Every structure is written in C-alpha cells, then in structure tokens.
Amino acid sequence: MVITLFPLIHKNQHVISINFEFNLDVKNYINAIEGVCWSKTHKTFYIANTFLNKQKLYKALRHKNWYVNYSALASKKVQTKKNKEDINTLKLPVLLEVQQKELEKFKKWMQQKRLSTNTVNTYFEVTSFFLRYVQLKQNPVSTRLIEQFNYDFIVRPNKSISYQNQCINGIKKYLDYKGVLLSNFEIERPKKPKKLPEVLSNTEIKNLLDSIIDLKHRTLLTLIYSSGLRIGEALQLRITDIDSKRMLIHIKSAKGIKDRYTLLSPKFLGLLRLYYKTYKPKDYLFEGQSSGLYSTSSAQNILKKAAKKANITKPITLHTLRHSFPTHLLENGTDIRYIQTLLGHSSPKTTMIYTHVSETSIRNIKNPFDNL
Length: 372
What we know:
- By secondary structure, the protein is an alpha+beta fold.
- The protein folds into three domains: 2-81; 97-178, DNA polymerase, domain 1 (Orthogonal Bundle), CATH 1.10.150; 202-363, hpI Integrase, Chain A (Orthogonal Bundle).
- The chain has helices at 24-31, 51-62, 97-112, 117-137, 143-155, 161-178, 202-210, 215-227, 231-236, 266-279, 296-309, 318-331, 336-343, 348-352, 359-363, and strands spanning 2-10, 13-19, 37-39, 44-48, 67-69, 242-243, 248-254, 258-263.
- Strands 3-4-2-1-5 form a five-stranded mixed sheet. It has a three-stranded antiparallel sheet with strand order 6-7-8.
- Mean pLDDT is 83; it is low at 75-88.
C-alpha cells in the first residue's frame, strides 16, 4: 500500500492531505488516527500541517509497513480549491515549532477539560490561524490585535457568522489556557439568522428507511430517527446502553457533558435484536471493519444514497432525522417539556423552534380569509 501526502490549504489552514487507493481497512485505520479529519470539499483525509503531526502521521503509517511518499511536502506549491481566491488574501507564515508545541499542549488541555472532539478540533484550527496572524503582525496579543484579526480574516472576506463565533470562542479559550486577561475584550457577536430546520414527513421517513436493504445501515438510521440522536451519540453507543426492560436508551456524556435517557421504540427493538444476532458487535453497537468506531462519513454516505433511492430532493443531513423526531412528537401531542428532556436541550427556547415547523400546529390555525 502506497500512502501519498500532499500539502493543502483547507479553510485557510495549512494541512496535510492523505491520499491512497481505496481500501476499507486502510480508510478505517487512517480515520482512527488522532487529529485526522475528512474534508467534504477536497474529498480527502487531512491533518493539520505541524511538526508534531508529521511525526505522528509517519509513525502511524509506517507501523503498518506502508510506503509513505511525502516528497510533495517538500514542494513550495500548495493545493487550493480556487487559486484565484488566494490572490487577495493575506499570506500567513507557517507556525514556528514552538507555536506548534504550544498548540499541542493547548489541545491536550482542552481534552482534559472534557470538551467534545469537534470543539477541540475547531478551537485548535482557529487558534492556529490566529497565532499565524500574530506572527505576521509581530505584535503581542491584545484586544486591538484580535479586533484586527476579526476584521481581516472574517468580516472582510465575508465568512460565515458561525465561523466568526467559533473564532472568537477559540481565541477566548486559548487566552483562558494561557491565563491572559485582556481589558475591554468585547467583540460584538453577530446574531445568526434564525432558520427553521429541515424536516421529513412521516411518509418520507418511511420511504427513506424502506429503501435501505443493508440491515446494519437501516438499523443505524432508524436508531437516529426513532430516538432523536445526534450522529456522534449514535456511534458512541455501547451495547450496555440499551435498556430493553425499561425501554430506554442511556446517552452518556452527550453534548455539554450531560447524560440523559431517550426512547427505545418497541418496533425498533425487534430490528435491533435481528441486527445484533447477525453482526454480533462486541462493545460499540455499531463497529467499523476493525472493531473500531463506525465513521460519520460512512453514515452520511448511507443517508445520501438512501435519499436518492427514495426520491427525496430536500437538502437533508443526518441531523434532519433528529429534527424530524421532535417535530413528529409534537404533531402527536407530546408535551414540549418531555421533548426537551429527550433531546438533551438545556433551554426550552432551543426546543421551541420545533413548534414553528410542526404541520399540525399550523394546519389547526383557522385562516381569517375563511371568515369573510
């Protein structure tokens, strides 16, 4: 097996693209390496291009006795999605080795704080971006410098509101890690547009699940919908988390480091038992080829194929199944306070959004035109 490494710019960060001829075992092994992520944009696995990550990557790949071609990393040419877009952007220097080591310590500190993997990776990325900006300006970290960074790389390029909030949160967390207190550090956070979540009708859910022939694939997507789970929660489920006597599923250390219980559908339990007898998972309910965690990208591909087969043209994601769960509960008359508990929402305001997408609630409103 030949693994080829290329330099790549992804989300304005220097990363290493990991390329190989498709092999499921190789894919699962690389996906399990700490820090490795999947890029939908570039269709490749990647890891932040740091000195420590290079060492970790070389060691992990050579442990399998695979040939690693890293000659492209020595080249000064870097792949970009649109080279023309880089003409008007400010070129950032590569992180110094001391900064790379400091970032790795910051990452471990966040992991010790039990932040979610996604949050850790996001804050790591945006902080890396900010430190390169600090190096470019050659000024100490200050409120003014952070404001300049916010304008130069977020506001002026018109990046998303979500990305701007992630950057601010990441920098604040890094300053907390360093024990740095800045006076008057208040960057106004733009409000995100309040978009209603996309949901599927009961008929669309049935058609979607009926279109899936593979037992494992159908069980996974049915679980997400019937229990209102996030994909990360579904993939982290262990066999012991299924309580068939009480008809509950125990979700442990979910978002916000909170445990909760959600529903175990009697109809789904029959499917789950058939799946268990067929696949015999040992620890996690859904395991990959090498008994590791099943990958999120694989689950996304399952949904994409199923949606196409079921002729669903809505722009749906795995989270659409979670959104559909509380919407259908509301339409069946379930109290929103119970739905809040099932979803693990800290605030009822978060759950209230589903009252705006419930078809039953809207249909029951009498149109004033009908009174004329």
